[in-house]
Amino acid sequence: MTTETTIAPPSTKSQVLRSFDVAEFPALNGLEEEWRFTPLKRLRELVRATALTGTAPQVEHGDLPAGVSVRSVEKVDPVLTPFDRVSALAFGSAAGVTLIEVAPETEPEQAVVIRLVGKGGEAAAGRTFVKVGAFAKVTLVLEQTGTTTLADNIEVLVGDSAQLTFVTVADWDADAVQAQHVKIRIGKDARAVHVQVALGGDLVRQFTSVEYTGRGGDAELWGLYFADAGQHFEHRQLVDHSVPDCRSYVGYRGALQGVSAQTVWVGDVLIRAAATGTDTYEINRNLILTDGAVAHSVPNLEIETGEIVGAGHASATGRFDEEQLFYLMARGIPEGEARKLVVRGFFAELLNKIPVEELRERLGTAIEARLAESAS
């Protein structure tokens, strides 16, 4: 007599498959919980390829402050073990690693700006590793522009008592496709603030995961996205609290306008049994500006211990507030300008998280220009 063994799907985020081998992940069909919102055909070769041979975006930067270096290396010990097929594909196909290193106790006065510029061509893989030494304090901006079909991983290691503000901007050309995993590992008494901005590209799917290695770790994940007609922006987070006395806060805001504009936000927070003293909260808000736009918002919270400081989540999706618009217009402000004010106010908290004035203003101008185009 023969018996069949059935493998049950994971009942918790801690049980999902993790592997560097793309062959260990089944082919994607769109029915998987992690991919059900993603239009797989628009991911092009990233869905079924077993290797990517295109040229990754070009790394550009200006003068670097003392204690900060950017170089290409063959390999570096990973902090991310992929738990989806595309991330594993990126690991197996990336030709080397872009290593951004901040020496211990370094505190540059100005933000460090790195650019990844896509030059088109065949689908490519990339890997970026950010290493911030103990007691360092730095703001790092990673701007992603040009055109590409890209699977990439960004790994961030924040040393003990270090402070990192990491701003990533996806402002790709209209035909670009990206599937990215950002992994942040936070040391004892360290603090990481990640501000993730998505404005450009045909399809951009970004997964951010966080883990802690010592008590006192603090993570803030902020996101700003504005999807226009036909664009698909997808943001997922997994904050894995496995160490006592750590904190996390997740706050993402998105605006949508135009037919078939679609956004997805899925926030997962896992508090393991050992993570006593955890304090966590996550919230997502979406502003729908026109008919035909669709926003999906799914907050999830998994708690394995009751000995925590606090845990909560919230989600809200709504249409443009006509009362606010009327209030402004009644005071002599033209409708177009009033709409800009309301949307800029919606994003103000997120923009103010970016400690680079020039970038804040540039992003605010880009948002207003997009609104002006829709009104013309």
From TrEMBL:
Pfam family, one: SUFBD_core
SUF system FeS cluster assembly SufBD core domain residues: 120-346
Family: Belongs to the iron-sulfur cluster assembly SufBD family.
Protein name: Fe-S cluster assembly protein SufD
Gene source species: Paractinoplanes hotanensis
